[in-house]
Amino acid sequence: MTERPILFVTRKLPADVETRLMRDYRGVLNDDDVAYGPNDLINESRNCGADAILTCGTEKFTADVIARLPERVKILATFSVGYDHIDIAAAKARGLVVTNTPEVLTDATADITMLCLIGAARQAQNAERILREGRWGRWAAMDMLGVEVTGKRLGIFGMGRIGQAVAQRARGFEMEIHYSNRSRLPAETEKGAIFHADPDEMLPHCDFLSTNCPGSAETRHFVDARRIALLPDGAIVVNTARGSVIDDDALIAALRSGKLAAAGLDVYEGEPDFDKRYLSLSNVFLLPHIGSATVETRNAMGFRALDNLDAWFAGQRPRDQVV
Ligand code: DGY
Question: What is the Cα–Cα distance from 27 to 8, expressed in whole angstroms?
Fold first, then answer.
């Protein structure tokens, strides 16, 4: 019988995922969930003799890290749909297989997008704070007024799986869906949503703008001062994709000036660090990157990552091979 491959796991994962991986691999776990920097990733991989690495979006596999990984490591499975933390060109050049976990987190992320959208529109953060701080007085007709979501126009930038799932939910709120995407969707998938080949052309039609694109050099600071100016006054911006999609200076200026009524954010450039000016703005609904954070989804992400590893070690092409 051949020895089970050695799998270096960079973060603590759900118990059922770890149980399965310990059955099928010689897993090297991170029980204390310590944060590994670039040198730790290289040294730990070398010390344990890893054949494969199971990582998360928190570990940065730069070109330098990839070049210094032991030759024995042949596959890097990320427990995430996004792979902007991995230098894909460097992985390709080295012949390192990379897999991700699409599909399984679509619903959870679309749910969080709606939470951010409604939370921002209804200023949920302020209302909740009032209750928690014991400041809830008499009901008042002019207190805690948000803006209506039902029937408004929603622009979705990035109409992949998550964008489409957001559109599906927004239809339940009778929203008029606009979208901009590299390519137009077939009519049966579009379901009446209005396509804009040029995202700038879509922006004036957005009472709400939701960014659901991948993080990349192309989408970096998509929401900048120029594009915010194209939105209607009082629009609301929601970002559950990647922090890099937003130019924080521009968004904060627009939230301060009242050009934008509100924003709902789950992701931040440079997270877990984020622009602390958001904390002093009462018109932002903030979450700490919990888009995929449900028990069901995190298990499914782990199992999907393991399916990809299993396929590769069985000599097959993994279903979610990125490169
Ligand atoms: C992903 O999978 O890319 C998410 O951002 C992690 O929740």
Answer: 6
Shared-domain flag, residues 14 and 124: no
| Token representation of residue 25 | 């691999």
DSSP 8-state code for residue 47: H
Question: For a substitution probing ligand 1, which of 80, 101, 162 has the most ligand atoms within 8 Å of its CB?
Answer: 80
Beta sheet of 260-265, edge-to-edge order: 194-195, 176-180, 153-157, 208-211, 235-239, 260-265, 284-286
Are residue 73 and residue 20 in the same domain, yes or no? Answer: yes
Question: Average pLDDT for residues 223-241, to the nearest whole number?
Answer: 99
* Best probe residue, ligand 1, of 292, 295, 296, 301 (max atoms within 8 Å of C-beta): 292
> Do residues 117 and 249 share a domain?
yes
Evaluate whether residue 321 is within a structural domain: no
Domains identified in the chain, total number: 2
Atom of ligand 1 nearest to the CA of 292: 7
Check whether residue 110 and residue 100 sit in a common domain: no
What is the spatial distance between Cα 169 and Cα 108, in angstroms, rounded to a whole number? Answer: 12
pTM for the whole structure: 0.97
Task: Read off the pLDDT of residues 19-63 as tens digits, 9 standing for 90 and up.
Answer: 999 999 999 999 999 999 999 999 999 999 999 999 999 999 999
Residue 2: the pLDDT is 81
57 Cα: distance to centroid of ligand 1 (angstroms): 7
Ligand 1 atom with the shortest distance to the CA of 291: 7
Q: Do 211 and 223 contact (CB within 8 A), yes or no?
A: yes
